[in-house]
Specification:
alpha/beta, globular
Length: 224
Amino acid sequence: EAVVRLKRANPGWGAVRIARRLHGEPLLAGQRLPSGTTIWRFWCSQAEPTAQHHRPATPVPPPVRAENERWQLDAIESVEVAGLGYVTIAQARDPVGRCTMLSTAFVGQPGQRTVKLTFAQVQEACRLGFARWGLPDALQTDHASLFIDTDPEAFPTYFQLWLMALLIRHDLIPWHRPTANGGVERAHRTTQACSLAGQSFASLEELQRRLAQDWEEANTTAPS
């Protein structure tokens, strides 16, 4: 009731701001309060239009015509790999050159089933790609919280500030349109089928060598 009341009184407030304001509600003192994400999900379940969260339209990224103009960046998240446990693999693809620019694996702690990339890990993966291929003009991602803060009062994320410092443009795909990052999504399927399926690895280094070997072959000798 407090969430709906605050949203109706302040239609422009985002979920994170309302989550903060709940801490000042006397009747809610001492209670466990929802996060901004939980409030957003609640808004999406409501029939009342003023209680819903309306995302702004994503500008359409400019078309690309040459190699290294824009990489599609994404990750295979929390895939189980024999011998290692759950692993997340950051990958980037140049859709014009049809080349996978990076494929870097990160393993979770023992027993950890969800392996989320950190900003430092994305930096590490991108730097390996930059060192090999040079800097792209743009990196294109989805709307994951690592890449962008979607609150109406958002500040740039560390990822966005880092790209600004490198003079790399950050492009976003439309909401719920993974096909807009179709090149890297297809690379994910190739990695899972060719490098991971039926394989066991004794160490993260062994897995990384396999990824590097398979993508070197695909990038340099495959018919595409």
